[in-house]
Amino acid sequence: NAGVTQTPKFRVLKTGQSMTLLCAQDMNHEYMYWYRQDPGMGLRLIHYSVGEGTTAKGEVPDGYNVSRLKKQNFLLGLESAAPSQTSVYFCASLTEGRPYEQYFGPGTRLTVT
Amino acid sequence: GENVEQHPSTLSVQEGDSAVIKCTYSDSASNYFPWYKQELGKGPQLIIDIRSNVGEKKDQRIAVTLNKTAKHFSLHITETQPEDSAVYFCAASTGSARQLTFGSGTQLTVLP
After folding, report:
1. Pairs of CB atoms within 8 A across A/B
2. With bands split at pLDDT 50, 70 and 90, how would you rate the model's confidence at A100?
3. Per-residue b/e over A80-108, b at no fewer than 16 CB within 10 Å?
4. pLDDT tens, position by position, B39-55
């Protein structure tokens, strides 16, 4: 079991460029989440999904889009990156066995110049 | 929406001493309160959690207490060790999708 994996680990973008972050989980979890982590602000929810084909907005969704075409994958897209999107991005998924515990991936560090 | 406040932002203790981190939440509908430990360069990892129908839970050197009336919960670490040094986050869960709202984190340093 790899758990939750994220691709890539690091990325540098120029303002206006686009990219997609990939989250994959092999635990057959229904729920998946994208968070961003900024210094002194904890983790903030960007978007989430309660199942294949579903997505919903979290606390800070502006500038991001998501897709959940397959149950095991949750993609986070930045269409036109801005310096304010410089952050560490974490993906998480929710276990069925203990229905409240979220498992987190190792993170993607994104810098927008 | 939910708002979670966490104090202190930094905490230094001597090895063997106890550490206490406190959080308050605003939404009385929140029903699950996890604590996560994050080591440098890694994702958060659950260390203990408590449901709203329980007042206290303990797991070896770690305990969590919940006061629903006052809307606050605390993490207690006893007999601290250098490997306890990390950033700790509290969170509150509400909503049908079990979304988490996180506190701003506490950098715990255990001095040998």
Report:
1. 63
2. confident
3. ebeeebbbbbbbbbbbeeeebebbbbebb
4. 999 999 999 999 888 89
